[in-house]
Write a structure and sequence with these properties.
By secondary structure, the chain is an all-alpha fold. The protein is built from ten helices and no strands. Helix 2 packs antiparallel against helix 5, helix 2 packs antiparallel against helix 9 and helix 4 packs across helix 8.
Length: 254
């Protein structure tokens, strides 16, 4: 094709048809430019299709990840609510009129419900971390969704601070139980059998409910875990996850 164009130009020049040559040369340039523009458009179209494909793959992966995160945060909210209820139950034991009406085993059951386990939240972040570290977060075209994903980590910062506070308060309570009560008695009441006798066999855990310091620490613990279900911790994280899932669904269903 190039050889053909060259021959045409030579013939026009050799015949002295300069005007026609210039018009032809300009036309040839226009054709080349049009060809380049078409090639660029095709390339841009292919690139756009590839980006859309990658975006959809990420959106589907994020949808799975954040549905898992929603299940996890709902479980954390439920477990923490159970912990709040258990502490409320324990706080009633500082009333001697209540304490005197229940058995040692019931006291041990209440203590166990407060001190066993923690309401924690460990989000799944594999897909999001990969997108941020690889610079692929910009593949998400929805600006609002992109911003919510980018700020999700900051939502977890206050959770870390809250978790440390809860751990410290719970540690104080355990120390007071160790110093003034009997873990052995708690375990026996919960069905644990020991082969040998102990000097603490005659001790029970009623006396710790006469300690003002223990009550104060328990109230601090209660207020903290109650706040954990609010908008700054578990409640706020759940709201953020739900908003992210709404935006993801809108993008997938376009």
């Amino acid at each position: 094709m190039i050889k053909l164009f060259r021959n045409i130009r030579k013939n026009l020049l050799s015949e002295g048809k300069t005007g026609k040559y210039l018009k032809y040369a300009i036309g040839e340039i226009v054709l080349v430019v049009i060809g380049i523009l078409i090639a660029l458009q095709i390339n841009n179209f292919n690139t756009s299709r590839q980006e859309i494909k990658i975006e959809q793959e990420y959106l589907l992966s994020l949808q799975t990840e954040y549905k898992t995160n929603l299940d996890k945060i709902n479980l954390s909210l439920q477990k923490n609510k159970e912990r709040v209820n258990a502490v409320e139950n324990m706080l009633t034991l500082f009333d001697t009129n209540v304490l005197d009406t229940i058995s040692d085993k019931a006291i041990s059951d209440i203590l166990y419900s407060v001190f066993s386990g923690d309401a924690t939240y460990q989000p799944s972040k594999g897909v999001l971390t990969d997108m941020i570290s690889s610079g692929n977060l910009n593949v998400i075209q929805n600006k609002k969704l992109r911003q919510r994903l980018a700020s999700f980590e900051s939502k977890l910062d206050f959770l870390k601070l809250m978790r440390n506070t809860i751990t410290d308060l719970k540690s104080k309570l355990k120390n007071q139980l160790n110093n003034n009560g009997s873990i052995r008695k708690l375990l026996i009441d919960r069905g644990r059998n020991f082969e040998h006798k102990s000097i603490s066999d005659s001790k029970n855990n009623r006396q710790i409910f006469s300690l003002i310091e223990f009550e104060n620490n328990l109230l601090d613990y209660y207020l903290t875990i109650s706040a954990a279900n609010g908008p700054r911790v578990f409640g706020g994280i759940k709201e953020q996850i739900e908003l992210i899932l709404v935006e993801i669904d809108l993008e997938i269903n376009k």
